[in-house]
Amino acid sequence: MQLAGTLCNAAGPLAGVTIIFEATATTMNGVLVSSDAQFTTQEDGTYLIDLKAGHYYVYWIERGHRVRLGTVTADQFSEASLPEVLQASPVPVDSSAIEDEIQEALAQMQADLAASTDLRDETAGLRDAAQQAATDAEAARDAAQASEQVSTDNADATAADRSDVTTKASQVSSDAAAASSAKTAAEAARDDAVNIAGGDSQPIFDAWVVDVERRQVENDTGGACTIERTAGGEPCYMFVIPKLKWEDLVPSGELGTGVHEAFLVDGVEKSELLVGMFQAATVNGELVSQARQVPRRSISWDNARSEAQSAGFDIMSNWEWSAIAFWCMANGFQPRGNTDYGQSHSHPHEQGSNVEYDNIATGSGPNTWNHNNAANGIADLVGNVWEWQWGFKMVDGRIFLAPDNDKSLVESSWVDTGWDMPSTSSTNWAGLYDAQNEAPEAVRRALIMPNGIADPDGSIWTNLDGERFPYRGGHRGNAGYAGLGALFLSSGRGYEYNSRGLRLSRLV
Q1: How confident is the model over 392-401, as pLDDT tens digits?
Q2: Distance, first Cα to last Cα, the chain
Q3: Helix (H, G, I), strand (E, B), or coil: what is residue 465?
Q4: Radius of gyration, CA atoms only, the chain
Q5: Tens of pLDDT, residues 216-270
Q6: DSSP 8-class letter at 61
Q7: CB 167 within 8 A of CB 62
Q8: At how many degrees (to 10) do helices 148-197 and 95-143 cross?
Q9: What are the residues whose beta carbons fall under 8 Å from the beta carbon of 350, sequence distance 6 or more?
Q10: DSSP 3-state of 387
Q11: Phi and psi of 350, rounded to 5°?
């Protein structure tokens, strides 16, 4: 069994803590197959230990005190954290036994203190005797002035007595300090034991188990991809996008400089963006990002957000879409996709696996349908199903835009950009650029209006009456109208249809 995780308490990770595993009747077919083991946590509180199959008593060692936690039964192949195994132990932690050990330690400390008190009293007596001896020596010196040898002998005896007293007094002081320190350590050990056994304080353990599947994905992709878990433990395959800057995405400077808004939360920079490699699907009642699934569709904007958040994520934001699209343009590649009922309209030999309504199974197309033209890319951004976006809306033609990627920001705080969209239907999106009437920079950065220099393919639809929420990318039958620039602004937040879906994301 491999035990791995992090030991920590309310103050943070616990470094230098030793856990001992003492083998008991640990046999397999009558043969002892394991032995005692122990680990000491690293500076960051992490630990990793392999236990042979068997049964162990487990002890906590800190500040020199040994406290029994319970038992562990180890098999040959399992992986877990120490608290998980202790909770599953057939012999739970015995808080009364822990208290007995602590009380015994405190009793010993009290005995040590009592002994120190006795020694202190003895020292006081010696000091008085030494003083008397000094007085007697002075009298003897006066009485025997004729005998220099006697005086010398008495003086030497007095010096020896004083030296002995000084030595004993120093030892008493040292013993008292050691006893006080031991008492403090014993009381601290008692508090830790109460925490471990389940007292009123914060639990001593807060452990993280190594996700072997995540480690494998990260190793295989060189860190380009990772796995995040839903609230229910389902794996979600995510592409890792490091922080991007505008001067790198559009080097000619038309859109300014600085960190892309997708990596800002209330003005605070974030290091990485995790975007679902696949359009969201429902597995075991939760939204996930997994390959070869039926994409979630026929869902409203509000329900999409609610279901995504229940799984521990959120829907992709328009700022995140902008970051990916501009990255693609900067790297000279625009992905294709399911734009002709299971195949690419421009490259019919590129096909996916149809599952329903001619929507394809997530990620079942070729690499050219991924944002980076590689097997580890973000799939199906173009075509298949439209994807709801967070972060902007249109009200009677006016664009209201979140200033950055802070998804906790309520809609009423989205900024009135002062920009009114034109009335369009199946209009080439890039063709809307007008150098004499440019949209505000934020609107062009958000890929709501083109910028004239790095504009991806796709068309735009608008309805200028009422409140309209965006989805992007196109669907299975949009042909050349689909693309990274494709934008649909004709539906309300409650609209549902079998060609409308979503994608999960998370900032870290």
Answers
A1: 999 999 999 9
A2: 32
A3: coil
A4: 37
A5: 999 999 999 999 999 899 999 999 999 999 999 999 999 999 999 999 999 999 9
A6: E
A7: no
A8: 170
A9: 336, 343, 344, 365, 366, 368, 369
A10: strand
A11: -85, 115
